[in-house]
Amino acid sequence: MSSPPLLLALDGNSLLHRAYHAGSSDGLLDGAGRPVWALKGLIGYLARAAAQLRPDAVLVGFDCPDHSTRKVDYPQYKAHRPEKPADLAEQIAGAPALLRAAGICTVVPPGYEADDVLASSAAAARALGWRSVLMTS
Predict the structure, then answer these.
(1) How far is CA 54 from CA 41, 63, 78, 91, in A?
(2) Alpha-carbon distance 63 to 48, whole Å?
(3) Deepest in the core among 75, 88, 118, 122, taking most CB within 10 A?
(4) 109-102-92 Cα angle (round to 5)
(5) Beta strands in the chain (DSSP E)
(6) CA distance 96 to 18
(7) b (16+ CB within 10 A) / e for 35-60
(8) In whole angstroms, what is the distance from residue 136 CA to residue 10 CA?
């Protein structure tokens, strides 16, 4: 008997932050001089997980860059966090388009965050009889 299909859902923001700090000593830039080391790290995390797990579907979720329903409900949400470095913000902003261009399902829901995407995609997968693996830092 075969096992149910598997969804691999990744937290794009979390993994980009991790890759940014892990690879900052590289300072890898593209041909135009833009930072890409966190993007390279994210792709590496995705590729290694997919190679190991062999999922039937892959999804990467990102935080909405424009607004957050959580900040509306609770203005102090993430207020303690320092501003993102510009080179990290640039890589986060470009990640969804890069992944989409590579054919990877990428979700950036208005007003919500990557962890919301992971939770709702896992719930939807379960309702369809799928298994899920959620990947975050």
Answers:
(1) 19, 26, 35, 27
(2) 23
(3) 118
(4) 50
(5) 6-11, 57-61, 105-107, 131-135
(6) 17
(7) bbbbbbbbbebbeebeeeeebeebbb
(8) 6
Is the pLDDT reported for residue 75 higher than 70?
Answer: no
Q: Given the structure tokens 């693996």, which residue do they identify? A: 133
pLDDT of 77: 62
Sequence-distant (6+) residues with CB within 8 A of 63 are 13, 108, 112, 113, 114
Contact (CB, 8 A) for 45 and 135: yes
For residues 23 and 41, the answer to whether their CB atoms sit within 8 Å is yes
Beta bridge partners of 60: 10, 106
pLDDT for residue 80: 74
% of the chain with per-residue pLDDT over 70: 93
Q: Average pLDDT, stretch 57-64?
A: 96
Write the pLDDT tens digit of every residue in 2-37: 899 999 999 999 999 999 999 888 889 999 999 999
